[in-house]
Amino acid sequence: MDILVIGGCGYIGTHMVKALLADGHDVVTLDNLSTGNRDLLPGGAFVMGDIRDAVVLEQVFSSRRFDAVMHFSASAQVGESVENPQKYYLNNVAGTLNLLKAMLRHDVDKFIFSSSAAVYGEPEYTPIDEGHPRRPTNPYGRTKLMVENILQDYDKAYGFRSVALRYFNAAGADTAGTIGEHHEPETHLIPLVLQAATGERENITVFGTDHKTPDGTCLRDYIHVNDLAAAHLLALEALQDGAPSAVYNLGSSRSHSVREVIETARRVTGRPIPAVDGPKRAGDPDVLVASSDKARKELGWKPQFETLDAIIESAWKWHQPQAKRR
Fold first, then answer.
1. I need a labelling partner for 153 at 20 to 30 A (CA). Which of 109, 258, 269, 289 fits?
2. How far is CA 174 from CA 12, 16, 130, 312, in A?
3. Is 89 one of the catalytic residues?
C-alpha cells in the first residue's frame, strides 16, 4: 500500500515509518519539523510541509495515489494546551479538517488517527475501557475528542472509514537503538529518569507522594512504542479488508507507579538516579490504566514488550549514545 504518514519525523511517527517499510509498504512522510527530527526518519520519501497549508496538501495528494493516511502531527503538551489553547485548536482540529478535506477531494477514505487517553479525563473506574465517559479536562484532550467526533460524522456522511487509537503512556525505543524518544522540552517520565541516569539532569522530581496508591505516587500504564506501531499496522489491515470505523485503547493493561519506574531504571542502568519529592500537580489522576481487551480481540493485537524492564532497557539503549552526543 501507499501510505502518507503525517508527522513521521516525530517519536511515534519514526517508529511507525520503520514498521511500515519493514512490512513492505511505500511511505511518504509529511512533517513541518516543529518537533520532529528529519535525521531520525528511517526511510521513504519526505515532504517538508504543514497540514494547515492547503497548497502543500494539494501538491502531496496530486503527486501519487495514497491508499491510506496515518496522522501523528498533533501538538501534545497538556500544560501548553492550557496556556495556549489557540495553538491546539488551530493545529489539532483545524489542521486535521484541512487534511480530511484534501483526502476527500482525492478519494482517500482510510484514516488512522493518533488519539489519546486524555479524551477520558478523570477516570470514574479503572481499567478504562472504550465505553468510559469522555470528559477531557484540558484543551489537548478536547481537541482529540473533537477530531474523533468529526470522524464519526465523516463516516456517516461520506463513508470515510477511520480507526482512532487512544494511547496511554507511549515509552521505550526501537530495539536497534537507532530511533527513540527525544522531545524539546522533555516532559515524559521515562526519558526524564534516564536523563538523570546519564547525568544530563541532577535528579528526577516525584510530583506528589500522597496519591491514593500503594506507594503514594501516580500509577500509569506504559506501552512500548513498537507495540503501538504494531497496532497501527493491524488497524490498517482491518480497514483494507473492509472493517468498519472503530476506536481502540492501546495500553499494557498494567500499572506502574512513579517510584517503581525509578527503581526499575536504577536496576536496568546500574546508576543511582537521585529523586526528590515535589508537590502534587493539579489534575494528575491517581491511576490511569487501560483495558485493551477490545484491540486484542478485534485486531488480534498482543503487545510484545510485556515488562517495564524491557521497555526501559530499550529506552536506555537509545539514550546512552544520545547523551554522549549532547
1. 289
2. 10, 10, 28, 11
3. no
